Amino acid sequence: MSHDVIIIGGGVSGLSCAYDLMQRGLDVRVLERQVRVGGNAISERFDGFLMEHGPTTFNASVPEAVAQIDALGLLGDASDLGPNVKRRYLRDQGKLTGVSSNPMGFLRSNYLSPQARIRMMFEGVIPRKKDGAEETIHAFTTRRFGREFADKVIEPMAAGLFMGDSEKLSINGAFARLAMMEQEHGSIVRAILKARKGSEPGRHLYSWKNGIGTVPQALAARLKTQIKTGVSVQKIIKTAHGFKVKTNKGDQTARAVILAVQPHVAAALMEPLDQEGAAAAAAISAPPINVVFLGYKREQVGHPLDGLGFLSTKDPSRIISGAQFLSTMYAHRAPDGYVSISAYAGGVRNPELATLDTADLVAEVHKELAQLLAIKGAPIVHKTRRWALGLPQYTLGHPERVSVLKAAPSRVSGLYVTGNFINGVSIANCMNTSAEIADRVALDLGFDAGSGVAQTA
Question: Which residue, among 448, 443, 391, 440, has the nearest Cα to 416 in the 3D structure?
């Protein structure tokens, strides 16, 4: 059977792209190797608790993604962060410090030394970088805000968002907006002050009663039979009229193919067609991540849990890179009288945790949390999710790799790449990237992206 577009991969990126193309009138087929769609956007309810196996929030500051959420009828049911999210917590030297979520929070907190806070205040007079050389996140923030801010604030943030290392991640790849702020405004602080009130990161994070898995479920419900699960793609062959896609359930043809898979899978499928693109994808690593979900009676926990959670500075003796106070963030995450916490371990800091026994992993995570949050007694419930391949690492050279992948259609007409390794790892970024790809595919195939009508000569 022939289609306009075959999308390989049924995660949020693939489903979102398929939905956009379907809305434009294209015949789309989504092929997913697993028996379920959604990728790592899995929300599981058990014993009155709700565990997020992957992402936990939807960033509502990405307009294109919000537009698709609205089109799916989900925007009205979205919940913003709970009223008790008042602080951001950071762990350093085995101690938690709460910092107000106010933009001036770090200047007013004792988390940073007086010298570090004074250094931060001089950010506005630091000249913008002019040589165009790529920097790591750590080098960028050290240059603009000082070494202590980079070590104690930005490094934990990089570990929390990417499970990565700020001394390896590219500022232009991972935090491109900050690099742009410097170039456009000459100062990060000046750019933030000019931004609209209420646009600070972390204050527009949505979810739903049944979790972030609501998004792929809604997309799948719209796509219906256009999704085929349990289909393993073995090879993509370029033909005179498009592509032949060989699978474990027979061959299919299409005018265009979109790869919405993990980078190592994209590399393998691109190798016979586009060696340059395959090399770029293969260079993107994704170290393993462990998610440990724990539920407690509220009376067991001495900490107020009045924040999103906490992030940790580098400490070889600790295994938790960060944790989220899920039942504080959103309602319906724990039964009345109980709380739920998710801890994250592994990534670049501790890849060896992928082989740690599950019982030992839970015990170690509980031990750390008990010390930090004044927890008494064992968790009431616990569950783990081990991702053999976690978040893609936007290391130095990533912008160039992305440019190569985006240029795939110029080397192999009709071949496109999307996913969380292109323009951001969040659900909203993935949807935004996929919308851009959908626009390009529709136009390349002769469809009017606005009306969904095929163009004629």
Answer: 440
Q: Give the whole-angstrom CA distance, residue 216 versus residue 32.
A: 13
pTM, two decimal places: 0.93
Contact of 340 with 382, CB cutoff 8 Å = no
Tell me the pLDDT tens digit for each residue of 18-45: 999 999 999 999 999 999 999 999 999 9
Q: 90 — alpha (psi -120 to 50), left (phi > 0) or beta? A: beta
For residue 265, the SS3 value is helix
Q: What CATH number is given for 2-41+212-285+393-444 in this structure?
A: 3.50.50.60
Q: Which residues pair with 296 in a beta bridge?
A: 339
Q: Kindly list the domain boundaries of the chain, sorted by start residue.
A: 2-41+212-285+393-444, 79-101+200-207+287-390, 103-195
Say how far apart CA 433 and CA 429 lie, in whole Å: 6
Cβ atoms within 10 A of the Cβ of 286, count? 19
The string of pLDDT tens digits covering residues 172-224 is 999 999 999 999 999 998 888 887 544 444 458 999 999 999 999 999 999 99
CATH number (3.90.660.20, 2.60.200.30, 3.20.20.150, 2.60.40.10) of 79-101+200-207+287-390 reads 3.90.660.20
Q: Regarding the domain with residue range 103-195, which homologous superfamily does it belong to in the CATH classification?
A: protoporphyrinogen ix oxidase, domain 3 (1.10.3110.10)
- Coil, strand, or helix at residue 379? coil
Alpha helices in 163-206 (DSSP H): 171-174, 176-185, 188-194
